[in-house]
C-alpha cells in the first residue's frame, strides 16, 4: 500500500454538501481534497427539475445546477479524486482514510458528506426485477415507460414530485401510499390531486412484484380491510425514503439506529476533527439548500479545529 500526500481537509462525497464544503475550505486556503466514488453532483444529478433552490425563479435542472456549482469550485482549483473511501482510522491527531483501490490518505480533518441512497422495499420480486421495471430514479428510467401504466410508491416530497414528473411519459400512474394522507408539501399534494393521470391508492402496501423478464403486476394489500388484489403495471418506482451508506463507519463514530451520523449543532461528529453534513447526518429534512448550508458550516468548523489543534 502506498501512502499519499497529507491534507488539511479531506471531504468525502461531492454532492451539494461536499461541493459547498470544498468551496469554503478552498476560500480558507486549506490544502483540500474532494473525493467521490461517483461523479461530482451526487443525487442532484438525478433530479429532473428543481424549483426550491433560491436564485433560480424559473427553476433549474439538476444537471445545470451541478454544472454551475462545479464551475464555481473549478475557479478555485479543483482537486478531485474519484475513489471510494472504505475505512476511517484515527492516528494521534491525524485521520487515515483507506481507499478501495488500496491507497491511504492522511488528513488533519475530515468532512463526511456521504449523502444517502434509496431505501428498498424488501419484498419478493424487488431484487430480481430491479432494472426490469423496478426503478429508484424517475429521471433515469422514466422515458422507458412511455404510454405505460406504472406504480409510484411513497408519500413524501420525492414520491409526489417524481410521480408528477413521470406523467410526462406514463399514461396512468397508481400512486400507492401506506397511510391515508401524504407527508409531502401541500403544493405538491394539490398538483397530484389535480393531475388526471395519477390515481391515488391510499392505506395500501405492495406485498409482491410479479413478472418473469419484466414487471407484469403487483400484489397489493389494503391495510385496513386486509383485502388483497393485483394491479397490472409494467413499472414500479420506489420512493420510500433514503438510507445512508455508513456501514464502514460503524464502530468508529456514533450513528443513530438507522445509520445516520450523529452530530452536534456545529456538525461535529463523536470523533475530534471529523465533521459531517448533508443527507448522511441524523436530521428531519433532506434538501439541497440545507446540505449546502451544512457544508459551509462543516468547512468553517474544520478551519476552526485546525487553528485550535494544529495552530495553523
Ligand atoms: C429524485 C430526487 C429528487 C430530489 N428533488 C429535490 C428537490 O427538488 N429539491 C431539493 O432541495 N432536494 C431534492 N432532492 C434531495 C437532494 O438531492 C439531497 O438532499 C441532496 O443531494 C443531498 O446532498 P448531499 O451532498 O448530502 O448528498 P448526495 O447528493 O447524496 O451526495 C453524496 C455523495 O457522496 C458520495 N459517497 C457516498 N459514500 C462515499 C464513499 N464511501 N466514498 C466516496 N464517495 C462516497 C456519493 O457517491 C455521492 O455522490 C431530491 C433527491 C432525489 C433522489
Word description of this protein:
This protein is 22% helix and 27% strand. It is α/β, with parallel strands linked by helices and 312 residues long. The chain folds into 2 domains: 180 residues, FAD/NAD(P)-binding domain (3-Layer(bba) Sandwich), CATH 3.50.50.60; 105 residues, FAD/NAD(P)-binding domain, CATH 3.50.50.60. The strands form 4 sheets. Strands 1, 2, 3, 4, 5, 6 and 17 form a 7-stranded mixed β-sheet that branches. A 5-stranded parallel β-sheet has the order 8-15-9-10-11. The longest helix has 22 residues. The mean pLDDT is 95. The protein binds flavin-adenine dinucleotide. The site of flavin-adenine dinucleotide has 35 residues, from helix 1, strand 2, helix 4 and helix 6.
Task: Provide a concise account of the structure shown.
With 312 residues, this protein is an alpha/beta fold.
Keywords for this entry:
6 helices, seven-stranded mixed sheet, 2 domains, 17 strands, binds flavin-adenine dinucleotide, FAD/NAD(P)-binding domain, five-stranded parallel sheet, 312 residues, alpha/beta
Mean pLDDT: 95
Q: Main β-sheet, in a few words?
A: 7 strands, mixed
Radius of gyration: 21 Å
Distance N terminus to C terminus?
A: 29 Å
CATH class call of the largest domain: Alpha Beta
**CATH homologous superfamily descriptor of the largest domain:** FAD/NAD(P)-binding domain
How many separate domains?
2
Amino acid at each position: 500500500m502506498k501512502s499519499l500526500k497529507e491534507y488539511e481537509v479531506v471531504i468525502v462525497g461531492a454532492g451539494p454538501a461536499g461541493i459547498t464544503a470544498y468551496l469554503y475550505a478552498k476560500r480558507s486556503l486549506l490544502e483540500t481534497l474532494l473525493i467521490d466514488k461517483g461523479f461530482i453532483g451526487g443525487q442532484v444529478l438525478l433530479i429532473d427539475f428543481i424549483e426550491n433552490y433560491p436564485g433560480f425563479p424559473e427553476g433549474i435542472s439538476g444537471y445545470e445546477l451541478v454544472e454551475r456549482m462545479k464551475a464555481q469550485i473549478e475557479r478555485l482549483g479543483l482537486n478531485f479524486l474519484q475513489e471510494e473511501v472504505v475505512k476511517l482510522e484515527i492516528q494521534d491527531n491525524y485521520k487515515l482514510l483507506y481507499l478501495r483501490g488500496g491507497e491511504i490518505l492522511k488528513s488533519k480533518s475530515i468532512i463526511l458528506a456521504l449523502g444517502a441512497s434509496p431505501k428498498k422495499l424488501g419484498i419478493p420480486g424487488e431484487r430480481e426485477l430491479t432494472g426490469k421495471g423496478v426503478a429508484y430514479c424517475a429521471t433515469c428510467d422514466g422515458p422507458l415507460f412511455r404510454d405505460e401504466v406504472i406504480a409510484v410508491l411513497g408519500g413524501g416530497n420525492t414520491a409526489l414530485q417524481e410521480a408528477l414528473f413521470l406523467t410526462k411519459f406514463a399514461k396512468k400512474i397508481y400512486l400507492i401510499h401506506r397511510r391515508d394522507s401524504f407527508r409531502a408539501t401541500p403544493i405538491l399534494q394539490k398538483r397530484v390531486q389535480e393531475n388526471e393521470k395519477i390515481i391515488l391508492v391510499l392505506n395500501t402496501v405492495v406485498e409482491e412484484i410479479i413478472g418473469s423478464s419484466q414487471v407484469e403486476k403487483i400484489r397489493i394489500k389494503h391495510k385496513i380491510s386486509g383485502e388483497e388484489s393485483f394491479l397490472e403495471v409494467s413499472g414500479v418506482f420506489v420512493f420510500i425514503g433514503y438510507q445512508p451508506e455508513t456501514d464502514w463507519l460503524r464502530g468508529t463514530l456514533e450513528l443513530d439506529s438507522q445509520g445516520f451520523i450523529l452530530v452536534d449543532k456545529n456538525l461535529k461528529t463523536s470523533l475530534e476533527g471529523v465533521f459531517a453534513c448533508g443527507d448522511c447526518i441524523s436530521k428531519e429534512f433532506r434538501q439541497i439548500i440545507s446540505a449546502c448550508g451544512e457544508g459551509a458550516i462543516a468547512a468553517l468548523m474544520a478551519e476552526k479545529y485546525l487553528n485550535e489543534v494544529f495552530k495553523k
